[in-house]
Description:
By secondary structure, the protein is α/β, with parallel strands linked by helices.
Amino acid sequence: MKDDLSLTSAIAKLQKKVETVNLPPPLLQKIEDLFSQLNVNVQSPQTFWQTYQSISQYLDWVVSLPWFHQSQDILDLAFAKEKLDQHHYGLESIKQRILEYISVLILQKNRHSEQNFPAPVFLFVGLVGTGKTTLAKSVASVLGRQFIRIPFGGLGDPLYLRGRSRVYPEAEPGAIIKGLKNVQTKNPVILLDEIDRIADDALNTIMGVLVELLDSEQNARFVDHYLDYPFDLSQVIFCATCNNTAKIATAVLDRLEIIEMPSYNDEEKITIGRDYLLPQALKMAGLSPTELQISPSVWPSIVRPLGFDAGVRTLKRNVESLCRQTAHLILQKKLEKVTVDETNVKQFIPQW
């Protein structure tokens, strides 16, 4: 009798967990069927507890997902332009395209609020360090949405995105569902990063998953194998990045709006280094703007110490290195400030 009470209370505990959240009615029916399985196994405690553990883990995921919750967009063109200009130098045509999308979103919300319109899927294409990932983050920032980054570099298993069925012992949801659980909204910006770096032997299957994710006609009922129930991704804004499009399937490219990321020239890099990267690096190093003085004549050496680089990653590393070295010198030699000019730049930055 005591064992029967224990099993019954365990089922009641799971039922109470489900009652605390708002779930889609068909999913509730599916959960009721799971409870029926438990009741059938009450006469066999060992089988009961094995089934209970699996169902309990499943319900933990189900009740933690944002089935109906979404964040409110910031629909303010002036705010969006200010944010984009604050974080990105140049790139005027790309920033203009993002502002155009926000303009359309504002009109849609104001005039047709009852309808859901599919968002464009931006594919930022460019060399390393040209700002692809940062731009995707900015799309989330200007709209006030949560941001999820899913790396594709070396990805070789579509189940990483799709999830693994609960019939397997190592079952778990895929990266999409995990990301939604973490941000707790159903309308984040999801970045599919480096989609041209998928492992060759998994290219076709993963491209098939991408078609479903990015197609507005299909992603409203995206089925993760672990959940085994469709989740509505139609309000997600997807972005993607790649170095080139050679390995990306035509069916995927058809669903993307390709935005070419230009390489930066030296003059643009000097502006980015001086006005964007240096203030951030000083703050990260605990320095004030007066404690590191960089002569204008040495910025070309900081920008291109060892040859051409299309992006700004090398520049960012060099600026951060200058700040770290400055912090060390100020503490070690009790200096009030460090000045980098033509006489000593080679002590700070490696040169040919």
